[in-house]
Sequence to fold (821 residues):
Amino acid sequence: MNITISQECGTAVASITGDITHAVAAELQEKLLALLSSVEDLVLDFGGIGILTSAGLRMLLLLYREAQGGHKKLLLAAVPESVEDVMSVTGFWEQFVTCKSVDDAIKKVTKTVQP
Amino acid sequence: MSGRIDLYPTGEISGLKVRPGRVKPYGTSLVPGGVNFSVFSTAATSCTLVLFDKQTRQIMAELVLPDSFRIGDVWSVIIFDLDPERFEYGYRMDGRWDPAAGYRFDPSKILLDPYVRSISGREVWGAQPDRDDKFPYRGFVIPEDFDWYGDTPMEIPSENLIIYEMHVRGFTRHSTSGVAHPGTYAGVVEKIPYLLSLGVNCVELLPVFEFDEFELSVPNPVTGGFNMNYWGYSTVGFYAPKAGFAATGAMGMQADEFKSMVRSLHSAGIEVLLDVVFNHTSEGDHRGPTISFRGLDNMIYYMLTPEGYYHNFSGCGNSLNCNNPIVREMVIECLRFWVAEYHIDGFRFDAAAILGRDSNGEIMNNPPLLESVALDPILKKCKLIAEAWDAGGLYLLGKFPNYGRFAEWNGKFRDDIRDFLRGEPNHAGLLATRLSGSPDLYESSGRGPLASINFITCHDGFSLRDLVSYNHKHNEANAEDNRDGCDDNRSWNCGIEGETTDLNITALRLRQAKNALLALMVARGTPMILMGDEMGRTQWGNNNTYCHDNEGNWLDWSLLEREPELFRFVRLAIAFRLRHPSLRAPRHPRSDTSGALGFPEISWHGRTPWAPDWSHESRLVAAVFATAAATADDVLYYAWNSASSVTMLDLPSLPGQYRWRVLVNTGCVSPLDIYNPGEGPLLLQGVPFLLGAYSSVVLVADVDLS
Fold:
């Protein structure tokens, strides 16, 4: 698992590659929570992820709750179909704001920010 | 690391950091920094916790738990730094091997935790098992943190319930289902719009506790395939949802998928009942495998003969010793767990008469298990339904120890409706009794019609289409020379055995199916429909399809296009029932009360009003159902003629501007067989009504505004 962080138009984008399993979920959670605390909006670029296990989903949920508590926006972008499928049938998908691409996500954040 | 000192290890066993665990809850629970394990055995001399590496499937560690980790008969341990996604577990229990005395301890076996929340080994339905694996079923830990989005208990009053009995896999496995995940919990969710269009508000799922579809599987020389344990009445783990029913079973996420299904059904207004099998386990008799209970506490979990063999009141090899206090606690905890953790709305107890037997199999007057279930605060609002008989010959219909809570699958309703349907003599009075909510069974004990789950067909026996298409069972595909399955089917093939292209016969069969379903919708009590009966599902005359994972059991959705008339009829008949409180009152109707439009709550009629014919040869029953409130105007006339000739009916008079309006007439073809409210023709006062052979009718009192 790798994570690359960039800023686009004032929004943090964390691009993650590899599998998000219990083996990496705790470490990833720590990094993303730290990132979330320092920005207003966070886009998770999932274009490069393979498997998202139960622990990975729980990590996402925790992040979502943190964002919600801090009135921040958390968006998932470019989620692979197989991951979307797992998230849908287990009832997690609808909790998240999702976008087809990172660009869409940034546009969405920008649009929401501007009155 | 937590600041709490009780969450630090106190030592090491087999290289793992541990401390003595918490004895409750039994099973596993996630605690900060680790996992708590707790297991009991009343007669084991030692307990070893076995941990497997989930990926390699090899044993990772074996922890012999010292006496300092035992309280009474309970061993418990917290293991720290254990990755819940990376391990599976089981137990070795040592002790006496003396089967005649009831002891069957064998430390060479690795046993499944009876309280295990998730089980691996059968993650993908039908995937070939590894027959060399000595421990094919392994427990694993799952988080119990589902977000229910504010889901509240449904608690639909039983009088308003329409139950749909269905098999999770069979519902959407057929290629015509059109769902993305055929045969799964997710597939059920995709079909919620269908359930809503039909109008049911409750699904009763055939067993969903983990079972092994390959149990006792053998090649089937008749079908050329394999017999499988398709129905699943053989529990491996009572707390674990069937992984092979989950699209995400291979990822170990069956619990999330199951909960998501329940949440979606609830949000659509549909309750979820589970068919639960507490009468036996999948370990069979003394020749069966040792999976869990037998190796943990044989004498506690099972009813044994004095020689140490297994009582077999279930017909499946063993009988769970439900009224032993320890087993009782396991069963009650299990029910509580499914209600609290999975938001289940109720249970149908398979072969529930066994639950009223003591350790020797004798019938108890006040079975503590049933009393405890009935009075439990967590279970207080959920539906409890008993199959009030068992394979040991105990038949408790009308007498099931109910404590004011348990309803019963009403086998007499099924039998009497079937007999009247096929034109048997001497059944007019019995039909009237069944339509009234079976007061013969439930009134003397103060139970109302809601004690009666009314059904004509269920998974066990013919489907409705087969009930009107076969005189005899045709179970050859079960490869038991047609010996298995019930012989008492009370069915009538309408002239030819099996499928036919004879239009007269197919028309009569369709009419008979409508007659049966209409009676179900008219009767007081809670109706239950079998999956697919609303679209003419056939099992090709097989009345015991427990072993077929094929198109004989899967719902063929193309029937909706081929049988639109039947589907439309059932849909409108359900809506009709739910519109009329006169059909659903939660008490037995009285004929000596004054109700709507001057009619008593129920009155019986014949070819002439107020003159019912209860004679031996009568095949006509006519009734007026009226709401008890004199101020209301919910009044219905119902008549069923199961004779082979037409009959003329003089109708009871209605007061003032009221006229009878046709709502249902199964003697007519669609769309004249059933109408939306206000669309059927108004009848002229005083003109007799012609009721066809094998036909039934519903008229509704309506004001003539013309």
